[in-house]
Specification:
Elements: H1 3-13, H2 38-45, H3 57-60, H4 95-98, H5 106-114, H6 116-119, H7 133-147
Helix pairs in contact: 5-7
Length: 150
């Protein structure tokens, strides 16, 4: 058996595509760094734990909150208090939200969560609103406290 044919068969048996460059280690050379386990990779893309709090459940479908939060369908709610609506860098807000002039505080957030379309007509937020005043108060407190990092 010729060497190229033997190498091709050996490569195929080892799961290496023919034509792939295989780096061989010299005697005494340290092995390459192992790849991170899959769980470590998944942990890097999971939302922050705060996003899984039951109080935050109505928002968690579209938003993340907590250290390491990333914008998804909706913008992150980290650092929301005192921020002008529609100004989070890198998030494509609706023109209505950008022009709303809202500054996020407890009262504004409460009104918005109760009826987003009534507070900002034309917002892209499709949430119908939360009627339950006690749930809304708990949610507003959670967002402002968790989003401040404290």
């Amino acid at each position: 058996m010729s060497r190229p044919l033997w190498f091709g068969l050996a490569a195929a048996l080892c799961g290496v595509a023919v034509g792939t460059v295989v780096a061989l280690r010299s005697a005494g050379e340290a092995p390459p760094e192992p790849l991170p386990p899959p769980a470590a990779v998944v942990a890097d893309i999971r939302p922050p734990e705060a996003s899984f709090d039951p109080v935050f459940e109505p928002c968690a479908h579209c938003h993340q909150i907590g250290r390491g939060a990333r914008s998804a369908t909706g913008p992150i709610l980290q650092g929301l208090a005192g921020r002008k609506a529609g100004t989070l860098a890198g998030y494509p807000f609706s023109p209505a939200m950008q022009a709303s002039g809202l500054i996020w505080d407890a009262a504004t957030l409460d009104r918005f969560i109760a009826a987003p379309q009534a507070v900002v007509p034309g917002t892209r937020m499709i949430y119908a609103g939360m009627d339950d005043e006690n749930r809304r108060k708990a949610l507003v407190e959670f967002i402002l406290k968790t989003g401040s990092g404290s």
